């Protein structure tokens, strides 16, 4: 026997980390980092069922306006997020939407605002196992366009600021020095988080679709951050991004059906 191909030997079976099997998840999967936020998504679904909770991966599956939708938490960082996408793709998931928290890097972006990524700067090591550094980390243009359009349609009703641009995916939360933050801001990067570049990369290689929307937890260039008390505006942002994503899934599915 030669070297093992992990993707092939786990395809269509119970997944090692997620403990999920084919049929357990829908085509669309929301990807928060925190397992507790899987529960936040579940309350918006019809007939939600807890499918598995192993390690940092907590998965619910239910329905939104008749569409089978799942949510799986990824934990913090690109390595665990890449595992989630790989194993979800192995059992039939096709569209991955990161719903996260993120720090803003430009003035004028407030706590609780929503950020949609049109590309990610790969300041992490996971993607290097898959592609060269020069290979871009970009979301699916069709689904992201629907996500942006849906966010703009709901912006007044839900009352949030909306920003679209390039984010950075960093490997080290505490390694982000003031000099590093200033450099990213000077490049025009609008926010920094820790998962989207790997999600974009792995999804693309698996011939799947990916997108990312984050609520602003703080602003690293203005110094507006909340670390010790409850960040109520961030919590409100989580709820709003979930509503936007679910409506975007509904709109995207209707578009696909109309084109069929």
From TrEMBL:
InterPro entries: Nucleoside_phosphorylase_CS (IPR018016), Nucleoside_phosphorylase_d (IPR000845), Nucleoside_phosphorylase_sf (IPR035994). SUPFAM superfamilies: Purine and uridine phosphorylases. GO terms for molecular function: uridine phosphorylase activity. Residues 27-223 form the Nucleoside phosphorylase domain. It is an enzyme of class 2 (transferase). Its EC number is 2.4.2.3. GO terms for cellular component: cytosol. Keywords: Glycosyltransferase, Transferase. It comes from the Bacteria. Pfam families: PNP_UDP_1. The keyword ATP-binding does not apply. GO terms for biological process: nucleoside catabolic process. Belongs to the PNP/UDP phosphorylase family. This is Uridine phosphorylase. It comes from Neomoorella glycerini. The gene is udp_2.
């Amino acid at each position: 026997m030669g070297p093992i191909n992990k993707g092939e030997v786990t395809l269509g079976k119970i997944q090692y980390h997620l403990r999920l099997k084919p049929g357990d998840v829908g085509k669309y999967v929301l990807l928060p980092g925190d397992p507790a936020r899987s529960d936040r998504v579940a309350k918006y679904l019809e007939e939600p069922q807890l499918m598995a909770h192993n390690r940092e991966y907590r998965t619910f599956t239910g329905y939104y306006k008749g569409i089978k939708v799942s949510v799986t938490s990824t934990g913090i960082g690109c390595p665990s997020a890449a595992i989630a996408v790989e194993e979800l793709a192995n059992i039939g998931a096709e569209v991955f939407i990161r719903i996260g928290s993120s720090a803003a890097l430009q003035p004028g972006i407030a706590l609780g605002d929503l950020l949609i990524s049109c590309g990610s700067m790969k300041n992490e090591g996971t993607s290097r196992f898959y592609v060269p550094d020069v290979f871009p980390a970009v979301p699916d243009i069709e689904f992201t366009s629907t996500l942006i359009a849906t966010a703009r349609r709901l912006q007044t009703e839900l009352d949030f600021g909306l920003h679209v641009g390039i984010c950075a995916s960093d490997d080290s939360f505490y390694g982000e020095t003031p000099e590093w933050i200033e450099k990213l801001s000077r490049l025009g990067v609008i926010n920094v988080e820790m998962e989207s570049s790997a999600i974009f990369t792995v999804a693309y290689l698996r011939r799947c679709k990916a997108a990312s929307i984050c609520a602003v937890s703080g602003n690293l260039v203005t110094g507006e951050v909340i670390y010790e008390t409850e960040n109520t505006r961030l919590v409100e942002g989580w709820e709003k991004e979930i509503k936007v994503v679910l409506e975007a899934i509904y709109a995207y599915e209707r578009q696909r059906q109309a084109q069929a």
